[in-house]
Write a structure and sequence with these properties.
The chain has one domain: Rossmann fold, CATH 3.40.50.1010. The N and C termini lie far apart (31 Å). Helix 6 (105-117) runs parallel beside helix 7 (137-144). The longest helix is centred in the middle third of the chain and has 13 residues, at 81-93. By secondary structure, it is of the alpha/beta class. Strand 4 (120-122), helix 7 and strand 5 form a beta-alpha-beta unit. Strands 3-2-1-4-5 form a five-stranded parallel sheet. The protein has eight helices and five strands. The protein has helices spanning 15-24, 31-42, 50-56, 61-72, 81-93, 105-117, 137-144, 152-158, and strands spanning 11-13, 46-49, 76-77, 120-122, 148-149.
Length: 164
């Protein structure tokens, strides 16, 4: 749809966002940031999907623990079988999944869940490089008219972070 943050849309956060936050704003050094992000999740201002958590569990231990805590608190949303099937349909129409590594499988599920629930997607992915490349989240969101944003500052303001 656009890269303009709509005030009426809730966003699913892609794994690359949480991984990036954990690298540049480490949990051990920035507890206030992560507490505020968790509070916004508790207040239902953004969505953390189970498939994103599963993808994150392969990364740093602190982020894995943070995600597991969100699961224990019941804040992680499970995608449905129908959304998984829709993810397959999306990939059949807009090839996103690398057939060797199976990278980007989660991306199709994120888009399917966003489409089914009127949500946006917050991801740092760029558009595909050329017409021979695999589709990326922004490409498919554009095609399916799903709002997609890339800018962390706009997202953070939307979920309640204040600039000082």
């Amino acid at each position: 749809m656009s890269n303009v943050l709509s005030q009426n849309i809730k966003y699913i956060m892609d794994a690359n966002i949480l991984i990036g936050f954990s690298l540049w704003t480490p949990i051990a050094l920035n507890g206030g940031f992560w507490n505020k992000l968790e509070q916004a999740l508790e207040e239902d201002k953004w969505i953390l999907l189970d498939v994103v958590v599963d993808e994150i569990k392969r990364h740093n231990i602190e982020l894995k623990k943070w995600c597991e805590r969100q699961q224990r608190k019941g804040l992680v949303v499970e995608i449905s079988k129908e959304e998984k099937y829709r993810g397959i349909e999306i990939n059949n129409q807009y090839e996103m999944i690398d057939q060797t590594s199976f990278n980007s499988t989660v991306d199709t599920y994120i888009i399917a869940h966003a489409e089914a629930n009127g949500l946006g997607v917050f991801s740092r992915e760029s558009n595909r490089a050329n017409s021979n490349s695999l589709y990326k989240i922004p490409d498919v969101c554009h095609e399916l008219k799903i709002d997609n944003i890339r800018q962390p500052l706009a997202f953070l303001k939307r979920i309640g972070f204040k600039s000082t």
